Structure formats: structure tokens, C-alpha cells
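Internal ticket #5521
Category: modeling
Description: The requester needs a full-assembly model to guide mutagenesis choices. All entity lines are attached below as received. Residue total reported by intake: 793.
Assigned to: D.W.
Attached entities:
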Amino acid sequence: MTTATLLPPAPQPAEPPAERSNYLNVSYGVVSWLLTKDHKRIAILYLISVTVMFLLGGVAISIVRLHLMTPQGALVSADTYNRLFTMHGVIMVFFFLVPVAPAVLGNFCLPLMIGAKDLAFPRINLLSWYLYVIGGAWTLWAMLTEGVDTGWTFYAPYSSQATHYNVVPTLIGLVLAGFSSLFTGLNFIVSTHWLRAPGLTWFRLPIFVWAMYGTSFISLLAVPVLAMALILLMLERLLHIGIFDPALGGDPLLFQHLFWFYSHPAVYIMILPGMGIVSEVIPCFARKALFGYTFVAFSSLAIAFLSFLVWAHHMFVAGITLYAALIFSCLSFLVAVPSAIKVFNWTATLYKGSIAFETPMLFCLGFVALFTAGGLTGLFLATLGVDIHVHDTYFVIAHFHFIMVGGMVMAYMGGLHFWWPKMTGRMYSQWWSRLAALIIFVGFFLTFLPQFIVGYNGMPRRYYQYVPEFQVWNVLSSAGASILAVGYVLPLAYLIYSLRYGPRTGNNPWGATGLEWQTASPPPRDNFDVTPTVVRGPYEYDTGKAQNEP
Amino acid sequence: MSLKDTLFTEAEQKALFDHTFLARERLEEQYASLPHQSETAAFGMWVFLATEVMFFGTLFLSVGAYWCLAPEVIERASLELNWIIGGINTLVLLVSSLMMVLAIHSAQINRQSDVYRYLLLTAGLGVCFLCFKALEYYIDYRENLIPGFKFDEAEWVSRGVDASQIGYVKIFLFLYWTMTGFHALHVTIGIVAVLVMAVLTRRGHFSAEYYSPLDVTGLYWHFVDVVWIFLFPALYLLGTHRL
């Protein structure tokens, strides 16, 4: 199969799609959506809510970037500046990056990929969306009325006594959102164990399902710890009993331990799904089976496991002992091994493949490049000596934005573009979407590459002013951010446009082999007319038996 | 073959599906059979309990951390807790867990009126636990053991705690209130769940073939019991070797 045969998507004259009953037209009205138990509809609800959150978090950081155009920072006051970057961090981490891939793409695809009619507990799935929305609205209210200026990390004693802003309401919202991702994880783990279609063995599961399994495992074990740490912080703030505040006899390091015991694994909650998406997209557009399936599958679990052993590398300068720091430094290096296994396997999959540069593939190739760069700079930070030099500088900011934005957001965009025809039954504009992928890639590099340089030269993070030597890099970064903003608004436009005017696609416009492509687009309410029986692995591209091949 | 197919033969699945009218009503669309649905529900509860372990684990870790930092003070503070009421409550919860087991056993041998009776006993013992707990909280209140609300530093200095170490006493008591408070919340949720199960039993919801919600509620109830089994020594008995 070549590029040319992929597009334009051939309409399927045999079944007129407009008349077919699917999950979108099976019932109408607001109530039918708000009380739905259908995992596909819940995914759409999540898609709308996380997009709103993403835009709000983006607006907050746009103001910050504008402010940083000049060394004196003329746009907002120091106080407002603190509240803006906190708002950006809190929204992007807890309300976008953590839920985005599991709750949108996972919710939609996982039951389809395992050949199930729904998730194991559909009501809990709906409950998880309500927790997300209530938590999100509550946090937004707290941040827009008074704001929070602690940064997304809420370090004690600053968050417990020193600040006067809306810390407690924000924390309540975060705990609710945490339980929302916990319930999603619970559903995924149980469904993967018990609802697989006949013949679908563990080693016939798509890597995306393995990645979701690893992600869910992390959510389940880490979220309760965060929830309890935040509850203790709330009580400390309300009752003035210093469990974390040294002035009252508490230990601030304990908060950092508990916080990072969640938040470092949460980094892998954010990146593992991205790796899953890439493992689906690259074989499809290279027309080759995924190289080293077993290794990629187990590296997801290895990352999930190792993620729990590295948290204290955030605290090298916070006063932990040298020996503890040494051990955590070594363990942090270990994470590079399964990550590298994945990158090598993706590269090997591309080797001698017949590669088609469709939009999802462009995003995913971008992911591989940016994730590799972000991962390598992570090794700098895991090195004790270097970390002391670059700790709390823009180097750290650039590193984790390469992973989170360059990695996860790119992969999410890739996944969204990949499964969009499955979700909606319509195709978006190829020209505009490729342009958007390109703009995002360029804008991203321009935004964050300068931050590595200023960070290495000593510009601290979270300061609202800086020395004049750094101005040129900051202007470059802000310029890049404006390009990035254009790149993110574009998909919003052409994807919404495609809902009404996009050409209808067949069931399998990409000629992919996954189980989700064997049902109609959009899928019927029960996903499959007949429960499928699986007789082969997920990536049998090279056998020439791809479904619906033109 | 997926796991569900290896566990239950097709004949077993079909027999259940065809012969029990009840079964047809209880089965949700995403499951192949009632045993499949029951096993999934139980597995789901186990996974949920794993998250609960982490939830309480954070608090146990905090107690442990401060115990390591200031063992004498923490143990001195622990001595002020009412281990007699705590001990009685341990017994109450253990017996309530036995009642829960008997309820599920009765369900398995299809004696629905016994199920109902044992469930009421379980819930009753749960309420009993809460009453003792309330009594204990009242005594704590009288003895000024509520940091941040009703707490007397001079009293602790007279008990031989150094004035600079009072912070640890407060932290320990704060953790005591948080842990027992969250545990009491779990007991309350458990009582409501058990009562709902009792009502459903009364309405003939369950049979020997299908009693999955009972099973799942039982798991939860036992978990709440087990948390207390760990919580009791970690808070109440920490200092008893100094008596």
C-alpha cells in the first residue's frame, strides 16, 4: 500500500453511512448525553471539557510569556504573575495532561480495542466525568476569584501558612479531579482483565492498551497518596497544626516526599499514553509490524514500576542525605532504559517501512524527536552535580515541557487526528492539518530551545523579572509561544469544520489493522454488531491482509 | 481464549442465563454471564481496596516518620489515648466481620432470611462501633486532646514533655483525629452499604446463583475492619511498653 491509496478516503457505497445507527444518532438531547453510560459519549464529554481547560491554561501562560518580553516585566504585577503561572501549572497538569489521553482517547478506544461492548463499570465512568467537571469548575472559581500563588507544587510551609489566597478550595478541586482519574484507571484495569474478546490474549493486545494499563496502575497507587497529602495540607492550613510547617514543629520534607511520590509517577501518567499512541500510529503509517512488540509492551510496565522509585530526584537540594540522593540518582537513570527501548523499537519499525506522511504520522514523528530530546536532558537533571547547577532554572522548565508538550501534547494531537475519523465518521482537511503539525513543531522548538540556554546560564524559574542579558532568548521564546498558539487554534477550527463539512470516511480510512477499525465509523452503540473473535496480533501490516485495503 | 471462557464452560454460562429469570434481569450488557459479571465486580473491589491501602498508607507513613523523629514524645502522647475503648471497638469490628461472613455463607446456601438477619447484625455492630467511638471522642474532648481547638500545653509540660517538643504531641494527636476520622467515615459508608444490601435481600434480589453485590460489600467491610486492626496498635499501643 502506498501513500496515494490512503487519500482521499474512498466512500463505501455498499452501506450508506448516514442511515446507519451509531452512538451519535442513537438518541438526541442534552439529557441523553449528560446521563449517558456509553464510553464513547463520555469520551466526547471529556474531549470538550479538557479542550476548554487547555485553552484556559494556554491563555494564562500567554500573558506570562508576553510579560517576560522585557526584563522588568511591564505587563502584570508580581502578585498577578505568580497567580498566572500557578493557574497555568495547575490546569495543565491536573486538568489537561493527566486526564487527556486516558479519559478521551482511552475511554473511546480501549473498549473497542479489546472488543468489549463497554467498560466494566459504565456508571463509575460517568461519575469520573462528573468529578472532573465539578473539580475543574471549583478550581477555576478558586483561581479566578482570588487565585493561588504557590505554584502547582504547593510546597509547605508556603502553601500552609505564608500565602493568603484560595489554597483550600483549589486543593478540594484537585482531590476531586484525582479521584476522577483514579476511577478511570480502575475501570481500565478491570476491563482489560475481564472484558477481552474471545481469542484476544494479552500478547495480542495493542500497545495502546498496555500503555493504558501501566497508566492506570500508576493512577491507582499514586493518586490516593496525593489526595491524602493535600487533605493533610488543607487541615494544617485550617487548624494551624504543623504537620508540614517547621515553625509549628512539622517537617516540610515530608510534604515533598508525599507530593512527589504522586507527582513523579504522574509524569509517567502523562507520557505513557503518548507512547501507546505512537506505537499504534507508527506501524500503521510505516505499513510494518511493530518491531519488538514484547519489549515495547513490557517497557510500559517497567516504566510504571520504576516511576515509583525515583521521586526524591526532585529534592536533591532540599536537604535529603547524600546517600539517599545517590540512590535516587541511580534509579532515575534506570528509567532511561525502557524509554530508550521504545525509541529504538519505533525507529526499527520505520526502517524499510513504506512510510506515509499523513497528519497523525507527522505528529508522532514529532513526538519521537522531541521526546528523545526531552528524555536526554532528563539525564542531565538526574545527575547529582549538574542538577545542583540547573535546579529550579529554566533548564528544568524546558526539559519537562519537551516531554509534556513536545511529547504528550504532540502524541495526543496525533492520536486525536488518527482516531478522529473513527469518532466522527468524517475526515478533516489534510492540508490544514499537516500545516498545523508543522507550525506546532516549529513553534515548539522556538519556544523551548531558548529556555534550555537561559536556564543553563542561570535564569531561575518563576521569577517575574530577569537580568537584561537574557532578553533576546526570552523574546525568542515568547515569539515561539505565539506561533505555538496559532498551531493549537488551527486544529480547533478545521476539526470543528470537519464535523459538518468534512467528507464521510469509510470504516477504516488508514487501512489499519486494529480491532477498533473493524467496526463502523462512527461505531454503533454496542461497538460491534457481533462480538469479534480475534485470531491474530494487532500489527499484521506486512502480511498484506490489512482490513478494507483498497 | 479469554480468562472468562476458561473459567466457566459454555454449558455453565448457558444454564445460568436460561434458567434464572432473576439472572436475566441482573446481567449488564457488557458481560457474557452472571458469574463473569460477579467475578469482575469482585476484582474491581480488590483493585479499589488497593487504592484505599495507599490512602491510609500515607497516614501510617506520617505516624511512622514522626515516631522515628521523636519516639519518646510520640509514645508519651499515645499513652493518653483511650486504649480500653479502642480495644472494645477492635472486638466489635471483628465480630461484625464474622457476621458479614455468615451473611455471605447464608447467601451461598440460599437462606435468605438468615442473610437479612446477619446483615442487620453487621450494621448494628457497625453502629455500636461508632457509638463507642463517639464516647471516646467525647472523653478526648474533656481531656483537652484536640489540637487547634481544645488543647492545653501546660498540662503536657506537667506530664514531663519538654515545651519545645509540644509540636510533636500536636502532630500525633492531629494524625490520630485524621486517621480515626477517616476510618469512621469508612465505617459509616459501610453501614449504609450493608443496610442497602439488607433491603435488597428482603426484596428477594439475591439468590445462591447471584449475590455479587453482597460479596463486594463484604470485601469492603472486611477491609474497613483490617484498617482498624492496623490502626489500633499504631496509635493506641505505641507507648504501652512504657507503662
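Resolution: model delivered.
Comment from assignee: Chain B has ten helices and two strands.
Ticket closed.
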